[in-house]
Amino acid sequence: MKKKDIKNLSYAELVAKRDELSRKYMDLRFQMVVGHVDNPLQKRNMRREIARLNTLISAKEDK
User: Fold this and answer.
1) Most exposed of 19, 31, 39, 62 (fewest Cβ within 10 Å)?
2) SS3 sequence, 1-62?
């Protein structure tokens, strides 16, 4: 998702998206251990996306 699209999501949607990405990140980590990953940079991008979501979630909690 684009950064602009993420900012328009509601709190519940942000939390659901973060949980989904966290599960995908764990699966990707397991695949990296086994050695079946096509794009190793995907791990970094997922981690950054989760951090963006966490930032937006904490900002909406303060409101």
Assistant:
1) 62
2) CCHHHHHCCCHHHHHHHHHHHHHHHHHHHHHHHHCCCCCCHHHHHHHHHHHHHHHHHHHHHH
